[in-house]
Each structure stands twice: as C-alpha cells, then as structure tokens.
Amino acid sequence: MQHGPAVRRRKLGAELRALRTSAALTSGEAARLVGWHQSKVSRIETGTSGVKPADVRLLLDAYDVADSQLRDLLMALAGSDDSGGRHHWWHAYRGVLPPTYRDFISLESQAGAMRTLETTVVPGLLQTPEYARAVTRAAVEGLPEDRLDTLVEVRLARQDVLRADPPLRLSAVLDEAVLRREVGGPGVMARQLERLVEAARLPQVRLQVLPFAAGAHIGVTGPFVIFSFSSTSDLDVVVLDHLTSSLYLERKEDLQAYTEAFNALQIHALSPEDSLDFIAGTATGA
Q: Taking Cα atoms as reference points, which of 162, 196, 160, 161 lies closest to residue 178?
C-alpha cells in the first residue's frame, strides 16, 4: 500500500526492466546505449529514484519500443506534459490540486477501463455541475467561492475521458444510498438522476445498482476504484480514497482480491437494464 508517486515509479521501473530484458540487454549495455552509468538504470528500474520523461524516451528508443500506446502510457507515468502530442490539462492546476488528486487524474486519463464501487456519492465522471458543486462544498467546509469554481471545473473536465477516442470504459456499482441521499436539494438530485439514466445508455458505461434489499455485502468496507490499462496489466492499480489522501495498491494479491470483490458485487447488483429502470423509478418517486 503506497502513495501515488511511489506506485508510479515502481510500475514504470518494472515495465522498463521488462522491456530491457525483452530487448536482450543487460543494464550495463542499456546504460552505455544512452550514455549513462549503470547505477542510474538500476535506480530507475527499482523505483528508488525519479525519472524524467526525456530519460524514459531515451530508454524506449534504445529498446526499440514502437507501440505508441505503451509509449504514451509510460511517458505519462513519468509525468510528461505532452505524451503523444496530448497536453495533460491538469498540470495547469498544480497550485490548486493536491499531488494525490493529480496522480488520480493522470491514471484516469491513461486507463483503458475503470471499475468503481460507490457507496455514498455519484462517481465524479457522472456528476452534473450542480451536484459536483454541492458535494465539493460539503466535503470541504469554508471553501472560497473561486476555489470551489476551480474544483468543479476540474471535476467536469475529467469527464472528457468518456468522450475520448477510444473512450474510457466505465463499470460502476452504486449502492442504493447514492440514489437516495439528497445532495444539493430536490431539483439538483432530480437532474443528477436524469444524468445517470443518460449515462447508463452509453455503450462505454455499465451502471448497476446494489439495492438495500441485497443486505450486507463485500463493499460495506468502503468505495474503491480499479484502473486497468490496455497495454499491460502490470500497470493496473487499486485506489482507495481517504479524507486527506489516496492510497494505491499494486500487489497482484490486492488486485485479485478487489477484482473478485467487484465481480461479486456485480453479481449481487441489479442487471444494467433493471438498474436503469430502478434509477428512473427513483427519479420519478416510484
């Protein structure tokens, strides 16, 4: 269990080590190809030191890595502002967003799929502007209006991943409490439920409701997110949110445990079709 930057360094280093091995190079040979000392390659591969995007690019060129998607992902893990020609917009909010939130957005923007259990609020990728404002205001008391505006702006900008080409594939299991908790007043909540109905009809979104009638379930310990990456499963990660920080779980045992938990939640939840009817019924008071 580690914080985001440490996880990214370890994952990046492990992937670079695997690519070097595939290229049939020793760490010393790789170092000579790029003009470094062998110890620098070792520190990068073990994740004990940071690595600049330019250094990653040198190594990928030395290993003859042609997969553009993989290159983009590894460059993003190195903190590149411009991976594959795409500007990482969240870097403009460095002075506002904590590092753990920026790390989360970076992973979200590069992931191929996201699985999430939500037990209290609507997932950020599916929130309306009014709902996002109400949730953010409640979560951070005494927030100045201009900072609140900025955080809502970031929340809405994140939703572009669902409209990207290809879009992020989102699978969400929502506890019924998410639908019943009135956030921002009746009008705000009504529009938010309508938004969920619209989102549930998108081909890249799979939305399921876990009704109260399902009783106690494996997700009662709290919400979580699983990010999966198209290029390599070695970069998959589980994210747990806490009040002041986020924790990232990268061990295969953790990934397997949370994947099995999510699969179990999907089995106990209503089907996507029944969930759509359930949300629509909640919106109309049925």
A: 196
According to DSSP, residue 47 is labeled T
User: What DSSP state is assigned to residue 91?
Assistant: G
Within a domain: residue 92?
no
Separation CA 127–CA 137 (nearest Å): 14
pTM to 2 decimals? 0.80
Q: Indicate left, alpha or beta for 47 from its phi (over 0: left) and psi (-120 to 50: alpha).
A: left
Degrees, nearest 5: CA angle 268-272-276: 115
> Based on the domain organization, do 217 and 272 belong to the same domain?
yes
- 3-state secondary structure (DSSP) of residue 147: helix
Predicted confidence at residue 80, as pLDDT, reads 61
For residues 144 and 16, membership in a common domain is answered with: no
Give the span between the Cα atoms of 170 and 69, in whole angstroms.
Answer: 19
Tell me: the pLDDT tens digits for 179-231?
Answer: 999 999 999 999 999 999 999 999 999 999 999 998 887 777 789 999 998 76
The rounded distance, in Å, linking the Cα atoms of 124 and 105 is 11
Residue 93 has pLDDT above 90, yes or no: no
Give the separation between CA 280 and CA 193, rounded to whole angstroms. 7
Burial zone of 129 (CB within 10 Å; 0-12 exposed, 13-18 middle, 19+ buried): middle
Statement: residue 134 has pLDDT above 60: yes
Q: Is 118 helix (H, G, I), strand (E, B) or coil?
A: strand
Are both 42 and 106 inside the same structural domain? no
Terminal-residue alpha carbon distance, the chain: 43
Beta bridge partners of 246: 241
Instruction: Please tell me the distance from the alpha carbon of residue 78 to that of residue 81, in angstroms, as a whole number.
Output: 9
| DSSP state at residue 30 | H
